[in-house]
Write a structure and sequence with these properties.
Blueprint lengths: L5 H11 L6 H12 L3 H17 L1 E2 L6 E2 L13 E8 L2 H8 L6 E5 L17 H9 L5 E4 L5 H14 L5 E4 L15 H9 L2 E2 L1
Parallel strand pairs: 3-4, 3-5, 5-6
Antiparallel strand pairs: 1-2, 6-7
Helix pairs in contact: 1-2
């Protein structure tokens, strides 16, 4: 006869759905949550609900925000002639940590990956092309991750924007191949931004 507590099993299953969380990590997290006092547990659950209800995508750059336009797009000191295209909102946070970039961003929310059923239509490419076509954008930095999918997405975007008379550049080497921007240190990202190349 196996030991099973239905509510605990359900909680473990929910944590297992998170990317990078295996069964043992999910169990540790579940036990941590059930050992919280009731007020902390309610606060934790409330924070999840509030984030889910209040966080939306910026209507300009598609980054996460609680307002219609995010704080980066509404900041007049940012250089609006440069757009740094990233895969994920976490990549914006990683580049912002360098304090070396003062342009704007565009978040794709993924990469082209035919094996996973993700094509250009599933990304925020229409919004990017609309921005380029209706503003004074001079350069688009393609800062997708240096993976096969990231490279393919960068090449696809560069072919779309070249006829629009906009320079397309790619982050320089310095970000390890196969790595994600969110895990790169500030010095590596700074060098990658400084050494970006035209593609």
């Amino acid at each position: 006869m196996s030991y099973n507590v239905a509510a605990l099993s359900k909680l473990v299953e929910q944590f297992e759905r998170m990317p990078g969380i295996g069964h043992k990590s999910a169990q540790r997290m579940a036990f941590y949550v059930i050992n919280m006092d009731k007020e902390d547990a309610k606060s934790f659950a409330s924070a999840i609900e509030e984030a889910h209800d209040k966080i939306l995508q910026c209507k300009i750059c598609c980054n996460l925000t609680q307002e219609e336009v995010c704080s980066l797009c509404s900041n007049d000191s940012r250089d609006k002639s440069v757009i740094c295209v990233v895969e994920d909102p976490r990549d914006v946070m990683a580049i912002e940590r360098t304090h070396d970039y003062d342009g704007t961003y565009h978040v794709l929310h993924g990469v082209i990956s035919p094996l996973n059923g993700i094509g250009p239509d599933q990304l925020s490419l229409k919004e990017l092309l609309s921005r380029i076509g209706s503003s004074e954008v001079k350069e688009v930095i393609l800062a997708t991750n240096p993976t096969v999918e990231g490279e393919a997405t960068a090449m696809y975007i560069s072919k779309l924007i070249k006829p629009m008379g906009v320079t397309a550049s790619r982050l320089a080497y310095g970000v390890p191949v196969g790595a994600s921007l969110e895990y790169a240190d500030e010095v590596t990202l700074s060098r990658a931004l400084e050494g970006r190349r035209i593609i």
